[in-house]
Amino acid sequence: MRGKMPVIATVAAGLVGVTAGAWPSVRDAPAAETGPSMRTQLSAVLGDKQWATPKPGSWTPDKPEASGLPPIVRSVNTQEKVVFLTIDDGYEYDAEFVNLVRREKVPILTFLTTQYVRGQGQYFLAMRNAGSQMENHTVSHKNMAIQAPETQRREICDAQETITKQYGRRPQIFRPPFGSYNETTRKMAKECGIKSIMLWSAEFYNGTSGPGVGFNGFARGDGAGKGFKPGDIILMHYRKGLAQQFQTILGWIREQGFRPAAVENYLPTSLGGNAPG
Ligand SMILES: [Zn+2]
Predict the structure, then answer these.
(1) Prediction pTM value
(2) From the CA of 270, how far away is ligand 1's center (Å)?
């Protein structure tokens, strides 16, 4: 998929001249105005953008499990040519990326590791205001499957509190670091108010190299070629150069006749999304 995107390269080049100026309205707000209560009020005014909802009957929503534990979601069961972009961690900040998401109006879902974003809360507030819900990716990015139950609980519940305070909405979806979890993870996630655990069906190794796919490579979890499939949940990361990398994957998505959609609108409310059920 690499090497055939002169159009995207041109678009990205055109963005270079744009300053980080589209989000200082948030970044430059006086500190006194960024406390939790103001954020909660702001969320009512600026908060989560409403993304297009899927046509009724165009997809099969996941269902809660009989066990009552949050189910594992790896993709969405749909025939529509939609894919879902999810971006993890929060260790790097590319101001241009916020502008790009705003301008292109692309729905993405963010999984935040709260310790990573220290001092950069405003960046993710701007992301939230660009329409990305903030979901839970633990406090410190530990491998959950090898942690004691109490550590797992703290990693998930404390991130819930921080994200709720900072972004005015309680996360409903959890993504375990490295995709590593066990039964205890699911129990602890449930105790913390999580409704589903979201993994992924493909990864875009944006700004890094993936095994066998090289720099900015793309790999399907099912190993079935290089293309997208309807309902793919795609893993990406907040890394340096994200704006340009994002242009790259948007180009691939459009070339293959797909479009990015908001995954939260394909999950029923019982699993932490916005769809009926
Ligand atoms: Zn991560």
Answers:
(1) 0.83
(2) 25
